[in-house]
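Blackboard transcription, Thursday session:
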Amino acid sequence: MPKVKSLPRGVAMVGAGMSKFGAFAEKNSRDLFVESYKAMTKSVDKGFDPAIIEAMYVGNFSSDQFEHQAHLAPILADAVGLTPIPATRVEDACASGGVALRQGVMAIASGMADVVLVGGAEKMTALNTAAVTEALATAADVAYEIPAGFTFPGFYAAMASAYMARYGMKSEHLMNVAIKNHDNAALNPNAQFGMTIQTWMEGRVAAALKKGKPAPTWSTIWEFLHDESGNPTIAYPLRLFDCSPISDGAAAVLLVAEEIAHQFTDHPIRIIGTAQASGSALHDRPSLTSIPAAKTAAANAYEMAGVTAKDIRIAEVHDCFTIAEVIASEDLGFFAPGEGFKAAEDGMTARDGAKPINTSGGLKAKGHPVGASGVAQTVEVWKQMRGQAEARQVDGDVSLALTHNVGATGSTCTVHVFERRN
Amino acid sequence: MPKVKSLPRGVAMVGAGMSKFGAFAEKNSRDLFVESYKAMTKSVDKGFDPAIIEAMYVGNFSSDQFEHQAHLAPILADAVGLTPIPATRVEDACASGGVALRQGVMAIASGMADVVLVGGAEKMTALNTAAVTEALATAADVAYEIPAGFTFPGFYAAMASAYMARYGMKSEHLMNVAIKNHDNAALNPNAQFGMTIQTWMEGRVAAALKKGKPAPTWSTIWEFLHDESGNPTIAYPLRLFDCSPISDGAAAVLLVAEEIAHQFTDHPIRIIGTAQASGSALHDRPSLTSIPAAKTAAANAYEMAGVTAKDIRIAEVHDCFTIAEVIASEDLGFFAPGEGFKAAEDGMTARDGAKPINTSGGLKAKGHPVGASGVAQTVEVWKQMRGQAEARQVDGDVSLALTHNVGATGSTCTVHVFERRN
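(Written on the board underneath:)
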């Protein structure tokens, strides 16, 4: 078991930005990263000279497969003028962004750097959906998981089915997560699906009428979400709106040693907990209704930060599928096992709830360019903690926040805890 | 420019092992890594309990493309029983192993871990040569380098041509590097090509005779190496024996905080210098006869270690092609620009020379499973510095050694300096 150790040196985030997420035929991961880097530089209150950046970590799942471009880190460094700094790609499937953040923290904590750029980027839409699904499946275990015939919707569907059987959840309950995350994304100008499900449904009706086709008869989003033509089943019990999209996007944050943070901003965000854990493949776990790596990472991050789950004001969690958000909200200790879906139903995870989750829209609606997601979660935390989340800003004091980033079926999980001191 | 900083905490290597390198139809990267892990555990003089390992870094270029298996780190961790420790893959093309080593050093220097496993693995031979060449080409820049029509033999052939034009080297001079590295590999039981070029040539003659074909008339290896049927041109001026092979293999080293090294061995090897640099694509460099990232990394590693090039007793350098070794021997400061090929000709880089290079056989003859190579270099340093390199052991005291690991055409380079204290 990994020992929990405190950071020997404080680390602070002093800038954060992201590209718009979506499907961009004309942009590659390099273009998207440059966009996110520019947004990051603008967010640094007192400005800075890029020449002081000493190292760069990039989270990327598989530009190898998506763009036929491996070795992405030095290419992105060159694109933003940072050659010859050390530029390292890290990969732990969809947790690559969280792992990149952790490496950045470690580089500063080690004393080997004072200023580190952490980025994440993925360009997925150049391939068709079947090819993307196949590329993503390489994140699972090809010896144990893939031969069972699964791709990722199937894995998470199996978890959802197990959760339903164990805790009495209905598949309808998952829709609460999708509705909430679309509501949040509608207020996030960088989101891929910047609209509520109501708006989406109305768009479908309008499109049908425009084509002279009979208009669908959905009168509520619940009818829409229950209808196979509105919300088709992907892998029972998961339907289309239970799944995060295929996305292009990038994100970037600037980390510095805490003692120099005031040179960049009077309102830095400290990273006070960082943890990562690995997990076995799905067949070798005691239960499908919880992810052991997430529980281990959460426990270690809380201990390092000296906080508990109840202290966390907001969290960005890895909702690659709606069931993943429900399970995450339990693994992180926000709700008891079997209570996560009820919390979502009761509005506890909404922006005005007791424990807002995925105010950004989450992977589900903000989009999920896989290697960028863990870094983009950090961008949302940065904005919420500094009161810059505009229309989706949560009320009151956000002095403690958390990000939770999962790779594959949970064979990697990172958890980070952030603190704002006034 | 990255600042050079000393490590705030000493880091020592207390174990190192590798799999046999070669083409193994029946083994995947998981099998090979387990083999290297077992060899590493056996090398730890006083033994250890694997439960104390707190984190793991894996260098891997693209199991995504070679094995349809991404997210390799937690899978390898699970294979050797280390779940749930943080398990992170790092990728910087053929420098992935060196970068993994550096992350391991950083994890200990940061105080976040005391005991870290560093591994490297690549299984390349499941694809045919054309497919491997295409997969490797994704390590180059798809926007600038690949559209010029190059794959890697072509890139390094361009460097060789430029070097010949600038310094008067003949293509024959490169053969000295190949002959030396095969001589060394003949004494390395883990090498893919564990034979001298003389033995290789005799094997070709014997095979022809066995098939009843006319025997080739080569009477010396020089005739063999100059003959298109013995040593065909791949990309002028590079011939077959100028190129490293397509390989399967893995390597593993165990790093610990220096203050606990005595618990593992009375003869640890300290890592006193670590540096990494990035470089632009080939089109954007002032010269083709030197790799700027290598010079930057070398300067920074020497400064951190407090040593100079002349202090280094042996070096494992990145000889993906023979020309790469010549250029490396100059970029590292062992020889003046334009003098590296003469040093090889004069035997200065042989085992009994003033500056032995690639006593392991190098990538050229030991084999080049790309993500493993940087870690396997470290295994050779471990053996030579502890007097355990058997028939290829260099004479005298090896108190300072160096590894040099390059990604792509030089868009990444790592340099590490190792010290043995008696």
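Lecturer's comment: Chain A has a mean pLDDT of 96.
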